[in-house]
Structures are given as C-alpha cells and as structure tokens.
Amino acid sequence: MPRNRNIVNAQLMNTKSTPAPAGDLHPLAAKSMSGAEVIVQVLADEGVDVMFGYSGGAILPVYDAVFRYNATHPNDDGSEPLPLIVPANEQGAGFMAAGYARASGKVGVAVVTSGPGATNMVTPVRDSMADSIPMVVICGQVGVAAIGSDAFQEAPVSTIMGACAKHVFLVTDASVLEATLRTAFEIARSGRPGPVVVDVPKDVQNTALTFAGQGQLPIPGYRARLRNVQSAQLDDAGCASFFDALAQARRPLIYAGGGVIASGAAEALRDFVADFGLPVTTTLMGLGAFDTTDPLALHFLGMHGTAYANYAVEDCDFVLTLGARFDDRVAGVPDKFAPRAKFIAQVDIDPAEIGKVKAVDWHHIGDLRRTLERLREYGAAHGIHPRQDGRYAAWHAHIAELKRVHALNYDHDSELIQPYAVIEAINRITDGHAIISTGVGQHQMWAAQYFDYRAPRHWLSSGSMGTMGFGLPAAIGAQFARRDATVIDIDGDGSIRMNLGELETVTTYGLPVKIVLLNNRGDGMVRQWQKLFFKGRFASSDKSLHTKDFIKAVQADGFTWARRLERKEELADTIAEFLAFEGPAFLEVMIDPDAGVYPMVGPGMSYAQMITGDFIASRQRAAGDETLRNDMF
Amino acid sequence: MNAVTQHTLTIMLQNETGALVRVAGLFASRSYNIDSLNVAATADPAISKLVLSIRGDDQAVVQIVRQTRKLIDVLEVSHQATAD
Q1: CB A465 within 8 A of CB A86
Q2: For an engineered disulfide with A135, which of A162, A195, A543, B11 has Cβ 3.0 to 4.6 Å away?
Q3: Tell me, which fold does domain A32-223 have in CATH?
Q4: Which one of A9, A222, A326 makes the best mutation probe of the B interface by having the most chain B beta carbons within 10 Å?
C-alpha cells in the first residue's frame, strides 16, 4: 500500500464564507423576510415549479409562506407558480418528487413536517440515494431549544437521514438558512446526484432575516473533489491505451448504466456507437440510455435481462462500462461476469465505483458525456473507424442471431391472459414514447423486458432499493414534470396496495395518469422464488390479496374509467380504449397467476447457467446444435 | 499482498452538526470496525481532526477511503498503512 500523506492545502481548508462576488444583485436583496419566506424564495430562484408534501405543526410557517407566495405571484394564466401537491402519506410525496426528478432530470422537492413526516420520508430518500436521483427534502423540526427533549413529533432526523442521504443539514443558526438551502440544491444536482435533506427547526422558520439573494456554504472539500472530477480530461495517452485495447478486440460490448442518463450522455453514446459500432446492453437503470429498438441494442442485462444480452456478455472479449457499477443483479458472481473479456474499461463520475466490485483494466473518472466525446474526437483524428472497416461484421451478425434465436417469448396459446401480451399491446400503441413507472416485482421486470425505451427518462423504477409502492406516486410526480406526456404506471396488486392512498391524489389533481394493474392475486415474485428455492412452500404469500376489489377502491377515489379485464379476446380493444381516455384511468388485468419472469439468472449463478423457462431458447438445450457450438469463440 | 493489516486514517472534517456521526456511521454501515478513534480540535475552530484505525486488506481500505471522500463535510483523508 503506497503511503499517501497529503499535504494540507490551505485553500482547501478555508471553511469561512467567501465574500459575495460583485455582480447582478438579486432584486429582493436586503429585503426583510422570515426564515420560511427565505426558504420559499430560494426554491423559486432554483427553478422549482412544483413541490410535494404533507403539512404539520413544525412546517406550518413554510406552508403559509408558500400560500402567500402563490397568492402574490400568480402565473400569467392565473395558476400557482409553486403548487404544493398533497399526498396521502409523506412516502408518496417523496416518490412523487423522485418521479418528477427521474422524468425531468431536475431536482425534485418535498416539504414535510417533523417526526413522523420526516421518518415517512426515509424510504424515498434512501431509494433516491441508491438510484442517484437528485432531490431536496425540507423537513420541519421542533424548535432549537426543544431538540433532544423528546418533544412532540421530534425525531433525530439528521442522524437518521445522515445514514441514507447524500447529505443532511440541520439548520440551528438562522443566519445560514439561505446559504444552506442553495447549497442543498448544488449538492443534490452535482457530481453523482442524490437526495439532500434540510432539517429546519420551527423557530428558525419564524426568525426575522434579511434576504441576501446569493451565497452558498463553504464546502471546500466537496467542491475541490467535484472540480477535479469535472475538469478531468481524458488525455492522449489514456485515449491511446483505450483504442489499443479496442484494436485487439473482435467482440466489444458496451455495458451502460443509469449514469448515462444522469449525465445527459445518451446522445454522446449514440454518436459513439455510430462511429465505432460497439453493441450496447444497458442495466435496468440504464433503459432508455440507448434506443432499445436499435439493431445494436441488446435491451437490458442481468438477473432478468434478455437472454441475448446475457449471452452477448458471455461471448464478448471487451467491455466498456459506462456509468454502471457491477451491481449484484448484474454481476451476481463478479469473477464470472464477462468471462471471455480480455479487457474491461470503466468510466464513472464516482471514484469509489472504480474497481469496487470488479477489477478493471482501464478507467477514467470524469463526466461521461465529455469522455465519450473526447474518445470520438481522438478516434476521428487517428483514423480509427472499425465499424466502417467491417471489423465487427461477424460480431454484429452474431448479435443479430442471438437476438433472433433467444428472443423474449411466452405461452401464446394459454387461455389465460399473459402479462407479457398486455405490455406488448400497450407498446404497440405507445411505441416507446410513453413514460413508464412501476412497482417492484414480476410486473416490473415484464415492463422492463417488453416495452421499447427509445429515449432517456421514460423508465422510472426503483432499481437498487426495490421499493414496492414506488409506481403510483412516481407516475404522479412524472406527470407534473411532463404534463403533456402519456404516463403509465404498470403496477402489481401487492405493490400498488403499499401506496394505494395516492389513487385519490391522481383524481384530486385531475392527472391523466394511466394505471395498469397486472393482478395475479399475490406477491408473484415471492411465489416464483418460493417455487424455485423453497420447494413451493408459500409462506405468507398465499395469505392476502384474494378479496380486494380494486375497481371499487378506485371508483371510491373518483376514477370514472375503471375496468377489470378478464377475457383474452378483449385485450386489444380494451387497451386502446383505456389509453385513449383523456383523464385518469385504471385498468385491472387478471393475469395468469403462474406467469413467471424469464430469463432468470439465479443468485450465485453465472450467465451461462441462466434459466430461460419454457418459451425462450436456451443455449444449454441447444448445445448440440452445430450453429451454436460452445467453441465458437 | 492482500493481507489484512492495521491502517490509520487521518480525516480533516468540517465541524458541522452531525459530521462525526456521519463518518462513524459510514464505517459502521459499510461493515468496517473502528479499532480506535481520536477527535481533536485544530487551530481553526471550524475544523476537527479525526485519527482512526481500522483493519482491512488494501482493497477494503482503498474503498473506505474513497467512500469517506464522498462525505460532504470531509476536507481531506490521508492514510498510512501500519504493519502489525
């Protein structure tokens, strides 16, 4: 281990506020405001156009300031500039903010009260951290003097959130409230994005302050590291060693993750592939980073990824990892991931992801979009054009054959409605342009597999945390981000029940959200695992969801279009009518309760051991086939 | 080469509410056991100096150093390996 004793850098250690730079003064600079008014003004300055939250004692000053701001600053059409959308539960507000952020790329904002309001927000905060989603959560807190006294609705939010968020601020000094809020947005959206929690005691909200209109907290360590990463330019030697390795490869593959979407690098990736001809598989989080309908697209890889993507990973001899982290759902057995790859390259903005799970041969820590553009420039300048040279012709033919032979498939002859057919029917109409949110479980995987994703930010799903109940509130948030888009929540009966109260939020705000409930009467993914790994002992999964009448439930919440589909022959017409309805609509589809998710790479299995089920061709079964010899590579 | 040895990390930390808890919590949540921890004030009241020791192989220590550098109020992390 090399000794690495850093010399303390005087500039880095400067934690004192820097004097505000001379420049355009904020029109409200020097105005007297309460802490709550300062919060609302900073939100407005940061471009926030919707907030999600539930009120309560310790946040009431902020809510009142929002009310007054909206009353005095109406938009030209009379609407509120800062609408505050009220969920049934704070967890719903958190996932609405996350759905808004995922669909727009902007920072999602939630504002909740102290104690239970804040603790209900823990799950969305951790979920957003795990999926690198930018969010600012403002929590009310008991007064500064009451902190630590077990006061009414008190919770140690900075301690709890500190363990789950990118950062948490507890503002006990009202004079830094304004700078803290602004800094929270900076941290949430910069570098690897994530959620930032600002805990604001009620007396701080009520403190009389003077608005500065500018200024941030000194966070010299974070900013210095961020500057290093953002300014990191891949040098000629780095480009050269990358292309030298690529020149040795015959079967290169790109493995692209959510980082491509977070960094706005999808277009750069498309151009890179156009130039160099590397096929692309994405992670679940990366769906939409590369048009899944492209001939070189392999859809997504991993535990329930397409068989052809997983086989391509088995076959490739070079991997370019872009904003992905060899998560256990992708590389369950890291040593056996891409076993024939002689060279693995990785680009990420987070230094901690380099080599965390799997050692790589080449890496660059920096912005993805700029790195891809830099590689393209270098390739162009040095006459590197393997695609035009036909260098990968055999590999491309192999990829096309994998996609043909090992395509997703299911039981088309069953009398029962197959969930895959439902997704396909919707996809035929939406054509990869709808925004899809999901809960967690089988329906989530089916939605990932059977929809086309032509562009980033159309796939909203709790990837890392796997939070059931995500789909409905995320769809609500997404609809606020993309008011004209078709937003569809593909949900399961177990998942939707977790945040069922948000049905009423859809109708309260008149959102044209479409909800598809794939009902298999129980927790299908749990049953699938119990069948495979617990000899069919359905512990707990056979107990609930047998009696619930979802149609009555949604009608009670004001859905006028609510229908249960039980007959296969009515599928196409019903879905067309459902999607054509202008307002909120709810379609429950009673699906084959035994429908499974395939392919499946079980925990601890390599891709070679993937189970493909009864309807997708497996290589193991076709092992004798001359065209798919094992010694092909 | 990949042996478990004692490592000493020196962390310069902005003296913010909860900053120490975030450092300790990071080590705990990533399954690193802190063998010793010393926190001291510095000439600058806004900065604390943490010296902590952990056991781990090189890769584990590199990983926790990188994770520590992701904490917002961490100014610097330096690290010396100490042979047992």
Answers
A1: no
A2: A195
A3: Rossmann fold (3.40.50)
A4: A222
Q: For A154-207, write each residue's pLDDT tens digit.
A: 999 999 999 999 999 999 999 999 999 999 999 999 999 999 999 999 999 999
- In this prediction, residues A386-396 reach a mean pLDDT of 95
This prediction has a pTM of: 0.94
Q: What is the pLDDT of residues A98-114, one digit of tens each?
A: 999 999 999 999 999 99
**HSE, side-chain direction, 13 A CA sphere, residue B28:** 9
Angle between helices B19-29 and B58-68 (to 10 degrees): 150
Residue A153 annotated among the catalytic residues of the structure? yes
Contacts of residue A8 in chain B, CB cutoff 8 Å?
12, 76
Q: How high is the pLDDT of residue A566?
A: 97
A488 or A7, which is more confident? A488
Residue A592 or residue A3, greater confidence:
A592
pLDDT value at A626 more than 80: no
In the chain, the amino acid numbered A514 is: K
Question: Among B17, B70, B78, whose Cβ lies nearest the Cβ of A5?
Answer: B78
What CATH number has the domain spanning A419-590?
A: 3.40.50.970
In Å, what is the CA distance from B66 to each residue of A180, A574, B27?
Answer: 25, 53, 12
The residue among B6, B17, B30, B77 with the most chain A CBs within 10 A of its CB, best to mutate, is: B17
Closest to A439 (Cα-Cα) out of A480, A471, A411, A414: A471
The domains found in chain B, sorted by start residue, are 5-82 (3.30.70.260)
Nearest CA in chain B to A196: B72
